[in-house]
UniProtKB/TrEMBL annotation:
<feature type="domain" description="RecX third three-helical">
    <location>
        <begin position="110"/>
        <end position="154"/>
    </location>
</feature>
<protein>
    <recommendedName>
        <fullName>Regulatory protein RecX</fullName>
    </recommendedName>
</protein>
<dbReference type="InterPro" id="IPR036388">
    <property type="entry name" value="WH-like_DNA-bd_sf"/>
</dbReference>
<comment type="function">
    <text>Modulates RecA activity.</text>
</comment>
<dbReference type="InterPro" id="IPR003783">
    <property type="entry name" value="Regulatory_RecX"/>
</dbReference>
<dbReference type="InterPro" id="IPR053924">
    <property type="entry name" value="RecX_HTH_2nd"/>
</dbReference>
<dbReference type="GO" id="GO:0006282">
    <property type="term" value="P:regulation of DNA repair"/>
</dbReference>
<dbReference type="InterPro" id="IPR053925">
    <property type="entry name" value="RecX_HTH_3rd"/>
</dbReference>
<dbReference type="GO" id="GO:0005737">
    <property type="term" value="C:cytoplasm"/>
</dbReference>
<dbReference type="Pfam" id="PF02631">
    <property type="entry name" value="RecX_HTH2"/>
</dbReference>
<comment type="similarity">
    <text>Belongs to the RecX family.</text>
</comment>
<keyword id="KW-0963">Cytoplasm</keyword>
<dbReference type="Pfam" id="PF21981">
    <property type="entry name" value="RecX_HTH3"/>
</dbReference>
<feature type="domain" description="RecX second three-helical">
    <location>
        <begin position="64"/>
        <end position="104"/>
    </location>
</feature>
Amino acid sequence: MSKRGDGAGDGPVDEATVRQYAVKLLARRDHGHHELRGKMRRRFGDQAPLDPVLEWCQEHDFLNDRRFAGFFVRSRIERGQGPLRIRAELREKGLGDEMIGAALDEADCDWFALARDVHGRRFRHPPADRKEKAKQLRFLQSRGFDAEQCFAALDAASEDQDTLD
């Protein structure tokens, strides 16, 4: 008997049970194909009828990698994350570079403006010395912005400070 009481480990799991679990997960939020397969495999094992359930979910448009990528990109932009981090997270979720690139393009985000905004929310003042500049650059890079976007954000902060003085 499994700890979860889902029938995993009790023998073969029927397709209806796997389908019900997949729909339950997809009702909470969108998942990518690879991500959903992994969750179902962890829950029911390799012997479960995963492929027919995944195909059924795609046929009924419950599972759509393109839609998932779009939602994921928008949610990460709202969190203040840059394109490099978003791209890496989507790769971890099993999406291809072409789909990731399309989702980032469709988001139509001004990454430079987002980097400036994220920097402005975190740091009240531009860096006063090299140590502080390195700290602020590391912060922006950890959020997923490339070097050009990071330096542009720091330059904008310095220009804004100059206009206030």
